[in-house]
Amino acid sequence: MKKINPINYCTFCGAEISIAIPDGDNRERHMCFDCGEIQYQNPKVIAGCLPVWGDKILLCKRAIEPRYGTWTIPAGFMENGETIEQGAARETWEEALAVVTNLELYQIFNVTRMNQIYMLFRATLSDPKGYGVGSESLEVELFDEINIPWEGISFKVIHHTLERFLHERKNNNFTFNIDSID
Amino acid sequence: MKKINPINYCTFCGAEISIAIPDGDNRERHMCFDCGEIQYQNPKVIAGCLPVWGDKILLCKRAIEPRYGTWTIPAGFMENGETIEQGAARETWEEALAVVTNLELYQIFNVTRMNQIYMLFRATLSDPKGYGVGSESLEVELFDEINIPWEGISFKVIHHTLERFLHERKNNNFTFNIDSID
Q1: Residue A38 touches chain B, beta carbons under 8 Å
Q2: CATH T-level topology, domain B7-41
Q3: What's the pTM value of the predicted model, to 2 decimals?
Q4: B 54-93 residues with CB below 8 A of A?
């Protein structure tokens, strides 16, 4: 996992940062006593897609850390200036060279330990041959349920979401869910 | 609105920051060529509650900028280490000294211009007298629909969410919605 470096200096003026509770606040922040800047740290959103074509699901084998070489659905950190849905579609393009339509928000997972929020959409591949190996992937493949590499799925949130999707698909009754995971 | 200061210096080593596209990336980032640190900027989540008691809705008059003096529902930036739901409940406590239960995610709004995602829950006040004026509020009050101060509502996202809630309440049929707003 990528090491997160400590915050030592002020982004605005370059002075040393202190840990202190600002006036009117109730928790410690990274503060600059030279210029008054406060560097808030907040959870980040990971947007992703569960791209399907008929009975098949598109998975990507990760070419990056963390969990290099494991299988996942296309997902990644949301960028400024985009909607969650646009982020999910962009990640699907970047990792699987696939265009998706009919995005429906399906699963939110709070991963509080990592300060992350997963927001995963069900989506339809535009073209069953329209996918490929993006720069962050080693392989990209459409899987039948029976061939899903359960032992090599990247993250618990992805495992849970795939399981729930396959379970709900049996009755064609998809429900939105919000949950937390450690 | 609070001015966002530019990022001039590296948080890790204090060297000057450059704007450049990192290897393997496809967009400009704030990079430090001295230590290699990259300061990613991502959207922030604003978690909030629509606290109700019977037919009444709890609103807070803002004691802070932006939109000082306007009415809103309790909401604010999610903190690291909490779930979205915990963030929404915490904000309701901080702004309205109210405890809420039965939180149900009701509305997500992408506000791409501000790099914000609103995540708003329907919730029930635990006690119809159990609220008060938190430090970021000037007044906190339970409103009947007929008395809602529509001209003085703080933000478009709050206005839309209140309208949709009141509309759906007529049929007691609440639906989750995800939308975008400029």
Answers
A1: no
A2: Ubiquitin Ligase Nedd4; Chain: W; (2.20.70)
A3: 0.95
A4: 77-85
